[in-house]
Design goal:
CATH architecture of the largest domain: Up-down Bundle
Shape: globular
Number of domains: 3
Radius of gyration: 22 Å
Helix content: 40-55%
Structural class: alpha+beta
Length: 302
C-alpha cells in the first residue's frame, strides 16, 4: 500500500491488489482505472526492459512517449484513447469500402476527426520532446563525462520539418487524400501519429544501429531519469523513483552520478549488492532491506 501527501495537503491512500488474475488499483479504498490515478502518485520506473526503448522498434518509443506524457498530462491519455478509437473505426471503414465502394462518401467525416485528434497528439509529443531532449542530454553528458551528446528528434510522416507545424492540418488532410486509394487497398490508415518514431542519436549516430551495449544502456537511463526534473516542473513535486537492477554493468562514475541525482527524491532500488556505501547517500537517508529465501529483514535503518 502506498501513501502520498500532495502539495494541496490532501492525503490519499493508493493500493494495488490482484482480483481474478487481474491487477486492480484502489484510490482511498475505491477501485479506480489506472488513468484515474495519474497525477496522484507520480512515479518513474526503470527496469531492464527499458533498454528496448533504444534497441527495438518505433512501437517501444511511442509507448514510452505515451506513458510519460500521460503521467503528468492526464488529458493526453484521453486524447490518445479518442485517437485510437477513431483510427480503429476508420480502418474498419476502409476495409468495408474495399467491398462496398459507396461507403467512401462517409470517409471525410472520419478524416476530419482523425486530423483534429491526431494533431493534438503530435503537438503534445513535440512539446514534450523539446524538453526531454534538453534534460536527457544534460544527464547523458554527466554520465559520459562530457564525451557523448544525446539528441532526440521526432520522426513524423506528415511534416518534413517543425517549420511546417503551423500547416500541419492542411498537410495531414493532403496526405490522407493522396493516399486514399492505397489505404482502401490495405484496409489501414498509413499516415498519422500511430506510426511516429523518436530518433535517438549519440554523437550524431543512430543509437539503435550503432550504439554499443553500454551506450544504449546509458541512453535508456538518461531518458528515464531525466523525467525527474520534468515531473517536478509540471507538478511542483518530485516523483518517487523505482529502480530495478539499474546499476548492473555500470562503472563507478555512472553509479555515483545516478545516486547523487536521486538525493532529491524518494527512491526504491533493487540490486544484488549494497551500492550505497560509496558516500553518495547519507546514512540517515538510507534504509537497506535484505531478502533471503523470500524473507525480508532490515539490516540498516539509520
Amino acid at each position: 500500500m502506498w501513501q502520498n501527501l500532495p502539495s494541496e495537503g490532501v492525503k490519499h491512500i493508493l493500493s494495488a491488489k490482484s482480483h481474478q488474475g487481474k491487477r486492480q488499483f484502489l484510490l482511498d479504498g475505491k477501485v479506480r482505472k489506472r488513468d484515474k490515478i495519474n497525477g496522484i502518485f507520480n512515479t518513474i520506473l526503470f527496469e531492464p526492459d527499458d533498454l528496448k526503448i533504444v534497441k527495438e522498434g518505433p512501437e517501444k518509443r511511442r509507448r514510452f512517449l505515451n506513458q510519460e506524457i500521460s503521467g503528468f498530462r492526464p488529458e493526453y491519455h484521453y486524447i490518445l484513447r479518442d485517437y485510437e478509437k477513431i483510427l480503429n473505426q476508420r480502418n474498419s471503414l476502409l476495409k468495408s469500402i474495399h467491398y462496398e465502394p459507396s461507403l467512401i462518401t462517409t470517409l471525410d467525416v472520419w478524416d476530419e476527426q482523425l486530423i483534429q485528434t491526431g494533431v493534438r497528439l503530435m503537438n503534445h509529443r513535440i512539446r514534450y520532446l523539446h524538453r526531454l531532449n534538453r534534460e536527457a542530454n544534460n544527464l547523458h553528458q554527466i554520465l559520459s563525462l562530457g564525451k557523448e551528446t544525446l539528441s532526440l528528434s521526432y520522426l513524423n510522416n506528415i511534416i518534413d520539418s517543425l517549420e511546417e507545424l503551423s500547416e500541419i492540418k492542411k498537410l495531414y488532410k493532403k496526405r490522407l487524400e493522396s493516399s486514399r486509394e492505397e489505404e482502401i487497398s490495405r484496409g489501414a490508415t498509413i499516415y498519422g501519429p500511430h506510426v511516429d518514431d523518436m530518433i535517438i542519436q549519440i554523437n550524431g549516430k543512430d543509437a539503435r544501429r550503432y550504439g554499443s551495449q553500454g551506450q544504449q544502456r546509458s541512453a535508456a537511463i538518461s531518458l528515464k531519469l531525466s523525467q525527474i526534473e520534468i515531473y517536478y516542473d509540471n507538478t511542483g513535486e518530485y516523483p518517487v523513483v523505482l529502480l530495478d537492477d539499474i546499476f548492473s554493468e555500470l562503472d563507478e562514475h555512472r553509479r555515483k552520478s545516478i545516486l547523487s541525482l536521486l538525493n532529491k527524491t524518494q527512491a526504491f532500488i533493487t540490486c544484488t549488492e549494497d551500492i550505497l556505501n560509496d558516500g553518495e547517500v547519507s546514512q540517515e537517508n538510507r534504509h537497506v532491506i535484505e531478502i533471503v529465501q523470500g524473507q525480508a529483514q532490515v539490516i540498516n535503518n539509520n
